[in-house]
Design goal:
This protein is an alpha+beta fold. The protein has a five-stranded antiparallel β-sheet with strand order 4-3-2-1-5. The chain starts with a helix and ends with a strand.
């Protein structure tokens, strides 16, 4: 809960809203190669009230959100345009 509170203070996005990106049919994601040596992390972009950029990991059957924010302008262009640039892949091509 502390991590979510920090995220709300920093980015203004709670994890309940952020989790809605996983319902976006046009969601895209890529593996986050640089973030952790201890666990696999993924970056995903999806739409919920705005284009959101979410970093998460999976622990067993649980998806754990690490951070969430509104996507930067260049990330929005990726989301709305070329899905394979910089390693991004559409979940439902």
């Amino acid at each position: 809960m502390e991590k979510e509170w920090d995220n709300i203070q920093l980015h203004g996005i709670n994890f309940t809203d952020a989790s809605e990106v996983f319902r976006d049919y046009f969601r895209m994601e890529r593996h986050d190669d640089d973030s952790s040596d201890c666990e696999d992390r993924w970056q995903t972009m999806g739409f919920f009230n705005d284009v959101l950029f979410v970093v998460y990991t999976e622990r067993g059957d649980i998806t754990r959100i690490i951070s969430a924010r509104v996507a930067e302008p260049f990330e929005r262009r990726i989301y709305h345009g070329n899905s394979e640039i910089y390693g991004w892949q559409r979940i439902n091509p």
